Amino acid sequence: MLGRLIINADLVVKTGLHIGGGSSSVEIGGIDNSVIKNHKGEPYIPGSSLKGKLRSLTELAHNKIGKNEKGENLPCNCGECFICKIYGVSASEENKSTDRLPTRIIVRDAFLKDSIAETMRRKEKDFKDLELSYTESKWENSIDRLTSKANPRLFERVPEGAIFDLEIIYTIYKEEDIENIKNLIEGFQFLEDDYLGGNGTRGYGKVKFENIRFFTKTIKDYTSKQFGDTKASVDEIDDIWIGKLKEQMIDTK
């Protein structure tokens, strides 16, 4: 291992976000589609949800969607392309005997920023009209195409303006992993023009990455230090920046 790139960012909710958490019971008039929450009752974004969405959008963009014998879509599992190298491959029989390095990316669960969570609890500023402690409710209505019967459902959503602390760890084993950082950042851009969570085609789940910061840890010293200038935009990851990172990682291995 040459080192690690640590990416911190604010993940800002632009339209109501729904990542389902299920419920053990449904009360009359209550919410029957709740969002996932941690032990403190605060909504959060599971790392698996974010990683899966980044991967699926990247596979779609680069025509790397696989198919099984039933014609169902499957994630790429070749183990050779940059998508498999970044996001990993399954522990299938055909992959057990191959000499492949571990998954490069770790996506942490993203929790509400402390300041935002406190504002929500107090129901202040932009969150003064929240119906619940950290979330809002929204009625959705589906119509039976044959009978025209309405089927109203009450969804819980993380409101617009919520901000989550995001941390992604990208491990660098080879020089080519440094080049593939651009493909990871590309996934962020795909997601900003798509949606996270459920009901995206109905307006849910628009998010934006803000205040993106990059830090490096090399094997030589493995002490956290900021690499270059703080990056505020994904557009600043250019060839010059990649070249400097190569010098730092390869010269200090």
Automatic annotation (TrEMBL):
Cited PANTHER family: CRISPR SYSTEM CMS ENDORIBONUCLEASE CSM3
Pfam families on file: RAMPs (PF03787)
Organism: Clostridium drakei
Alphabetical keyword list: Antiviral defense, Endonuclease, Hydrolase, Nuclease, RNA-binding
The keyword Nuclease belongs to this UniProt entry's keyword annotation: yes
Domain of life, per lineage: Bacteria
Keyword RNA-binding carried by entry: yes
Protein name: CRISPR system Cms endoribonuclease Csm3
Residues in CRISPR type III-associated protein domain copies: 11-208
Recorded GO MF terms: endonuclease activity; hydrolase activity; RNA binding
Biological process, per Gene Ontology: defense response to virus
Family: Belongs to the CRISPR-associated Csm3 family.
